[in-house]
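Q: Structure tokens for this one, please.
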Amino acid sequence: LGAKLEEHREAAFMSYELATIKIDVPLDVQVADLMPGEPHREALIALYRELEFKQWLDELLREAKAAGENCEVAPEDCSIQAEAQYDTLLEQAEFDAWLARLQAADCFAFDTETTSIDAQQAQLVGVSFAIETGKAAYVPLCHSYMGVPQQLDRDAVLAALKPLLEDPNKQKICQHGKYDMNVLMHYGIELRGQAYDTMLESYVLDATATRHDMDSLALKYLGRGTIRFEDIAGKGAKQLTFDQIAIEQAGPYAAEDADVTLRLHQTLLGKLEATPSLLKVLREIEMPLVPVLARIERNGALVDAQLLGQQSVELGEKLVALEREAYELAGEEFNLGSPKQLCAILYEKLGCPVLSKTAGGQPSTAESVLAELADRDYPLPKVIMQHRSLSKLKGTYTDKLPQQINPRTGRIHTSYHQAVTATGRLSSSDPNLQNIPIRTAEGRRIRQAFVAAPGYKLLAADYSQIELRIMAHLAQDAGLLHAFQNGLDVHRATAAEVFGVELAQVTSDMRRSAKAINFGLIYGMSAFGLAKQIDVGRKEAQEYIDRYFARYPGVLAYMERTRAQAAEQGYVETLFGRRLYLPEINSKNGAMRKGAERTAINAPMQGTAADIIKRAMIAVDGWLQESGLDARVILQVHDELVLEVREDLLDQVRDAISPLMSQAAELDVPLLVETGVGANWDEAH
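A: Here is the predicted structure, written as tokens:
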């Protein structure tokens, strides 16, 4: 060390000098001048609104309000309440006066306050209304705490409101109105005339926005802070339910909900009217779908809890066996769920190649990495993947589904979400029924637990290859159009084209590869990705893709045309006018731009498929309501509807459902609907 220091003496002293803080530099300012001053809130509010820094904007508005400052940018004031007149109705005369105003109004905003975010479990606590901006009222009905003031009788108030709420000609404006619809049904009120939903207005306007809740929308479109539920109810384990909140606090909060909903509607509708195609999507697809989804949620699905319990036991035994196998392969016991321990076993002890690293620089144990290691015939990653898959099925479904059975109905009631995915597809939660695997035996067994009630059967109706059919329509490719119009097996037809053989000579392996090409190109799969999927070399995979585009030039032309349009417009559209904005389509970052281009190609197909199944749901529900038959939709998953039908009506319902779904869109190829019947979901699919 001494010799090295002597050799690099000058560099060492230079490093010492460079690392020393210099404290004798002459400055033109004093220390006091460098102290941070008071923020220019109005300028910051304008900046935060422009850049959509929602959390910072919310905090700044609250600070300004607490300081008693006027925020002209906001405008007038930081709080909506500061300029509003909110009434809390505790007297019959006050309620009667508001009821008369509601009856005379062309439309009004409406909201419910309840004890739970689960609409199937929630109890109604109060209702609120707004007829004009800045004027709203809350009717407390079931607050229950020590010293609560006398409230109006809930049954009497609801009886007075029932004709108004059920009048289809009286327009209502809600925020997430499906929830209010389901809550009111518990009290014998079927909410009709819901003309607008601000959550859906925002979603249709820009589906790529991350949040469409009222507080976020108020910040984004009104530049206002609102009273958050946590402000009056607290947080965590000690959070109060709404019936426990003092009416003095609950009244302004609930009335503000209705007022903000009305204000948001006035702002959002104007923006939608500027793009008629988006307004049409809202009025013809999203709004009519709200009562349909509400009905499906209320119908619920019957599950066999005992069968799920047996499956849980069996999955538990398989997991134990997989753990033992993993220990043997590793040569020691370890926690299979610990990335740190797994990392040490795989890379330090077993010497597996490091294919990818985490952000922290550690070798990755992500699913994709394990899958690639398994493909390279490393046995432990294969066992770990099996363990993870079965563990997820057990924890998410076989253990949890029995706990989610509603004690009142004896059924599971999932929640469908319209305003989540960017493409327009529905998602579900509590439980999420979109992700039950259908290609594995264990996943199909879970579907076997979704059963029909005695005297009924399940009828499943599923669109066949809908996205490929939409591709054929959009691309106007002669080869694809011919295959679908003549009822050919499109994967077999593609295999014949790509591999240059007659249809009769297409093998099952050829068809499987062609299927991977057909679906892979829709999702922008590269030659590298295709090579991995069909287990060929990258050069060979590229030859298949080149041959595909040579045989189907319309598909390539569609892709190139779509990329160009997306780059020019900044968005792509479905056949029905739904838009997906692509902010990164012209990014200088190549990876981000390529990702946006892949989305641009796929989104019109996936979005159109979403629009079609929604239109089909509206048509099927309308027919069921009109026919009065003993049949109901109980599930919607991807491109499939599952109905529970009385056994003697199966043929009649199936004969009606298939054409209704086929006619949900007019394409240049037929929309084929496949149906199946069974005692459980797996049998019916």
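A few notes: The chain has five domains: 2-34, 82-274, 303-410, 442-466+610-684, 467-609. The first strand starts at residue 85 and ends at 88.
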